[in-house]
Design a protein that fits this description.
Helix content is about 40%, strand content about 25%. By secondary structure, it is of the alpha+beta class.
Length: about 160
């Protein structure tokens, strides 16, 4: 392979899109921690911290990568600092969310209030949702060992795939 060919491969690898895909079910350990899969940690840039926010529509939690949260915060910082309605909304989000530091094994410990919200008692089903990770009670999702073609069809259609 020529040097030019090698450069094109390297350049295309650098521009590859990294997305969070798949499903991983992990038991909560005795301290109620669970591990974020190493492949997802790499995709997120091996972050020190992640953000956990409750889903506004479903009984699950959203694990938001730091880059995505940083982009949202940058948008909010452009708004007036003392806007009372904005600050009230931000307070609700702040009170019900967490910024968690990963330990050396990639584990996090979500607070009891959020674990209860999503009914995460013994196991967490982590589902890659392209931009973020959804944390579910596995009983709410089913085994996840079959492709729901109808749901996939609707998702693909809704996204214009």
């Amino acid at each position: 392979m020529s040097k030019i060919g090698k450069q094109s491969v390297a350049e295309s690898t650098k521009s590859a899109i990294s997305v969070l895909l798949g499903r991983y079910d992990y038991a909560l350990d005795p301290k109620k921690r669970f591990t974020i899969p190493s492949c997802w940690r790499r995709i997120m840039g091996d972050p020190e911290d992640v953000f956990i926010v409750p889903d506004p529509e479903e009984k699950c939690l959203n694990l938001v990568p730091p880059d995505l949260m940083r982009a949202r915060i940058e948008e909010l910082q452009k708004k007036a600092l003392l806007d009372p309605s904005l600050n009230k909304l931000l307070q609700v989000i702040g009170e019900n969310s967490e910024q968690l530091t990963l330990d050396c094994q990639g584990r996090i410990r979500v607070c009891d209030k959020l674990l209860r919200f999503a009914n995460l008692t013994t196991t967490v089903a982590m589902v890659g949702s392209v931009r973020l990770i959804k944390l579910w009670d596995p009983a709410a999702l089913g085994a996840g060992d079959e492709v729901d073609q109808e749901a996939f069809r609707e998702a693909a259609k809704g996204l214009g795939f």
